[in-house]
Specification:
Keywords: DNA-binding
CATH architecture: Orthogonal Bundle
Shape: globular
Pfam family, one: VF530
Number of domains: 1
Strand content: under 5%
GO molecular function: DNA binding
Number of helices: 6
Oligomer: single chain
Number of strands: 0
Structural class: mainly alpha
Order of helices and strands: HHHHHH
Radius of gyration: 17 Å
Distance between the termini: 56 Å
Organism: Bacterioplanoides pacificum
Helix content: 55-70%
Protein name: VF530 family DNA-binding protein
Length: 110
């Protein structure tokens, strides 16, 4: 059989999160995945509850786990998460780039 290894197959979210916390710690994880349950009085239990209810956050944590298993370094993991969150190191948001007012999601300035 050829192809990619499925690092998520057969692993529970609890085991995945526990392993990431053991390897990187809450501080590093909260820098990558910006959610309060990683920053303020973090625990496995509160984090699991939030991740099970929040698909975008769970996807980011799973991406960190896959990158870790693939041997990526911290800067590569950070870049993956930034890309998932829609950030680019080369681009600034329109409001920040122009220095003018807020950007309306429908395209006009307010």
């Amino acid at each position: 059989m050829t192809g990619k290894t499925d690092y998520l197959h057969g692993i529970t979210l609890e085991k995945l999160l526990t392993e990431l916390v053991e390897v990187y710690g809450w501080k590093t994880l909260s820098g990558w995945v910006r959610i309060n349950c990683f920053r303020s009085d973090p625990s496995i239990k509160s984090s699991l509850k939030f991740l099970r209810r929040t698909p975008w956050a769970r996807a980011q944590v799973e991406a960190v786990f896959i990158a870790y298993k693939e041997g990526k370094d911290n800067s590569q993991i950070a870049a993956i998460i930034k890309q998932m969150a829609g950030f680019s190191s080369n681009k600034k948001p329109a409001a920040a780039a122009t220095g003018r007012g807020k950007v309306n999601p429908w395209g006009s300035r307010s």
